[in-house]
User: Fold these one by one.
Assistant:
Number 1:
Amino acid sequence: MLHIGCHLSCARGYLAMGRQALSIGADTFQFFTRNPRGGSVKPFDRQDAQALAAFLREHRFAPILAHAPYTLNACAAEERIRAFAVRTLREDLERLSFLPGAMLNFHPGSHVGQGAKEGIRLIARMLDEVYTPQIQTPVLLETMAGKGSEVGRSFEELREIIQAAREGDRLGVCLDTCHVMDGGYDIAGRLEDVLAEFDRVLGLSRLRAIHLNDSKNPLGSHKDRHARIGEGYIGLEAFGRIINHPQLRNLPFYLETPNEIEGYEREIALLRGLYREES
């Protein structure tokens, strides 16, 4: 079964997201834990979270994915920004404890001229401060496109973060199709080679989620501009291969394409039509 959803707004509450996802044919979804361009967050409604947890169980949803805000930069040069990252991740993980099965994804950060080595050290230090053995929510590092001073532009950089973090063995990875294409991994034309490289460097057992996005820019552009499915340089045929690949087909897929809810509904139906059920 294809487990697929899209990015939804949590402005109306947790349970409302579950109902909206179900209404468009999704069996999972992603949402920002707070204002993605700032960091403000509305008061936590424990009852609403518990109602969503019950709804997800009732309708047999795949794991949902919480996305940390873009302003979270664990390897910033300024201490106050790094402190915000620690505080934010702690609070988000505390809230997600009321949503069993949910995962938390974040962009590793930008080293802003300090160098990738220092950026990796700071990211691992932040994880050590917040990701304790008591936390059950899986934390995922996202593959990045490599624009500017982004850390996580290669599988090797993600591996270095994992190796440096005290709880690194528990960390997973969210692969973004647009990001890896823009980062120089030919997921459109050489999917088998990309997966073999991921397995060699990180191990496919770490791959827990996939962001499905086409790319407005060609291979290796380092631009990170998402396109609708089939309207970019990855192309519809490649997405058919991705969602049906034996090593990927059972993972949850999350659309982050430039769409309103009606567009997401069309893309979910399109991808379900490309999915081949196992006999």
Number 2:
Amino acid sequence: MNHQELTKLLTPTYGAGEARAVVRLVMEERFGLSQTDLLLGKDTTLSADKRKEFEKIAQRLVKGEPVQYVLGYTSFYGHRFRVTPDVLIPRPETEELVHIALDEQPIPANILDLCTGSGCIAISLAKALPRATVAGIDISEKALAVALENRAALDADGVRFFRRDILIWEPLHEQLFDLIVSNPPYVCQSEAKTMAPHVLNHEPHLALFVPDADPLLFYRAISRIGLQALRQGGGVAVEINEALPDETCQTFVDAGYTQVKVHHDQFGKPRFLTAKRP
């Protein structure tokens, strides 16, 4: 199999454009071959060991495994993060949440990232704000193990990670936070049928889904935690389900927050919410 054959095999899953992008990424990142090299046919001159590696990668991709899991890493906010099937693959839209968090709190002293996963948000904020103290929370021990790997690889030793269930909140310490940021589970179970198979079949459902009967479960928890853990005037910045912006806003309004605002992503979809603790 060569790169062109692999592209054809992936096209029914990804579409022609994305299939080419996936294959180009693999060939460049894993085998050091540029698009020009591929046009010159240099992928046919790979060593026997490299060809075996390519075949294994191709098999995983054809089975629908996301390329980020195959490579073992992805780029987010200018940094390379390790990702495994124990954590969500960070999306470009979530980079916008980091921008919003920085705009909402230009110089925060203490930041709390709920449902931290790979640690991409917490670590990105810490790298952007070297004088800030940042804590990340997740219920999954396996996800926290990945976050710790990323902390070490990206020299973000000041970020602390803790295992907590945000639905049963236990305070970390008496110090109050200036900002809570979160990309919590928000996809309703009924939405699963509309999801791409390479997401549905490979990314962790624990980090994706909420019950249809209670889609705002985690936002109510975040609002409660904010009332306990934020200083007066502290901020919240969260990613939300584009189908439920008004309902999510109302959750924070009902909890007493002020300046509750929905922000749209680069595609014009209601994707983020910010609010202030009174």
